[in-house]
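Give me the fold.
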Amino acid sequence: MKNIFFQNKGPFKLSEILNTLNINDKKNFTDHQINDVKDLISAQNNDLTFFHSKKYEKIANDTKASFCVTTANLKHKLPNTCLPIIVKNVLVSIAQITSKFYPNSINDNFDNTVKNISETKFKDNVTFGKNVLVGENVSIGSNCFIGHNTIIEKNVIIGHSCSIGSNVIIRNTFIKNNVNILDSCVIGKHGFGFFPNKIKNLRYPHIGIVIIEDNCEVGCGSTIDRGSMSNTIIGKNSFLDNQIHIAHNVRIGENTIIAGQVGIAGSSIIGDNVKIGGQAGISGHLKIGSNVEIGGGSGVIKDIPDNSKVMGYPAKNIRDFLRKIK
């Protein structure tokens, strides 16, 4: 999928990428042109990707990327069509490369392009409250409502029959049709991605967006971070309660219901028809199957298969949990 909101400053020569990584030994590389940096799944010929954990070796084996930033221990998992670029720290290296391709994706300063909605083309086809601001590269469909003091920053697409509450901030987001965003939500801002350093922490670029599918609702005070290398996605007909945090790259399936104060850490995948009780926490890079029920207050630290009911910390089969507390 082409990045619709962040401008790609590439292509770059491979030699430029190697220089960025301070790799001086270039004898095994021809000076090839690299079009883009993408994740293992979406990368295509002449793209660069990264591979940092055995957890993704099956995906890595099928990648169509021409180049991959990885470690010496993982390089043999790549297909012959993908040339490894060996580094000590994959994530730091790919952050440096992504910053080169997408320099505007690192920081999230306020959008100084915004105008009062009454001064824009939307004044006649949107019902809006007081102090509503709209930035550049924004599209709003018909029959939409926007509450007081809301800011639709740059790079936002809103479909038809949507309701955006008061005191909401949205940027870098694609909202489809018949979606309700309740008061005080923040959607599409930079995720919590950085590498700790005693002198200055290195912030990770976020070039993904948030996609909210048809017929969804996001409760008051919720935060949905945009993706880093891929997108954060809320599937059709999914309802989120108040004060929920969805971190970068999370994918939530269709018809999923999430109660208040739930937190889902980065890059976890939630299946269809899932129910998550209030104050549950889900660790990052996990896969939660379809038709799963997670009890309130649970702590999920490993994958959960389809059709499971779990509760507790660490979350376990609900029968085992209830038997233990009797």
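Helices lie at 14-20, 57-61, 90-101, 318-325.
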